[in-house]
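Worked example

This section walks through a single chain of length 321. The input is the sequence exactly as stored; nothing has been trimmed or padded.
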Amino acid sequence: MRRIVLLLLIMSGCVCTAQAQREAQFSQYHMALGYYNPATAGVSGNLDVVSLYRIQWMGWSNAPKTLYATANMPFRFMKKEHGVGVAFSKDDESGGYGSTNIGLQYAYLKKIGKGTLRAGMQLGMLNMSMGSDHTVTPVDSAGNAAGDDPAIPTSKVTSKAFDAHVGIYYHTDKWYVGVAVTHVLEPVFEEEHAYSYMPRGYNFIGGYNIRMKNPLVELQPSVLIQTNFNTTKADLVARAVYAKKYSAGLLWRINENRIVDAIAVMLGATFGKIEGGYAYDIPLSAVGRGTMGSHELFLKYKLELNKPKTGKSKHKSVRIL
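Given that input, the structure is written out below as tokens.
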């Protein structure tokens, strides 16, 4: 417990020294670990199919929208444990920017101490789009059109580039911690009158599963920090799970000025192989004024895999196999 507390304090301290990258954000990030760290592919031990959809700042014209979907699972090869997955994300930002990313994930596992160390990567393609048919041209102080800026495309342009993420992740039955680097090569996108690039980002995540005296209740505090060392944001979550079926939680989002600029309420439920959840963000910063908040939904399908048996069978009759 002391180790994870120290870890959370160190991670929280990063907010003071670093300054978020151009990455989408999810309040229910515990359901989208693969988005932040490819080393988590197959971490649950099941075949998981997960999707999240977020509408940022509902009520704004051209409000940002983000979709993330993944399917991942563990597998055994050459007497070694591995994880594999495919991930897809689509982020439509305000201002005419957007990105689509699809990649294959792989994780290598090694037992260390009471836990498992995972090292993973994601390789794929990133498609960036800039501009739109509704681009607003510059105006002078009198409000008159000041001419077209050649750096602002007046129609939508797209460009593709190779993209790569890497990460490590260590987890036990009680706690987990991970660090990942996204957009390692900082892919560049150039068109005739447009230039953009995706900056390298760094994601730090940690959490703890606290079992209460009541065996039906479990507390799951966690933290996610995203930075490119120019800007930083930290999401702090306090989440409770009842009977491994129902969950509720609160999130505090802290910006680079160590100010809470949003809080979120989360609810979730599991029914058999299906798990779903909803989060509502309440913006506290000036940018959030005039909105109806942000809405986020997730859906997960879990299929338990038949693992190969090891050792000799203790059954003596085929009728009870």
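What to look for: Helices lie at 2-17, 33-36.
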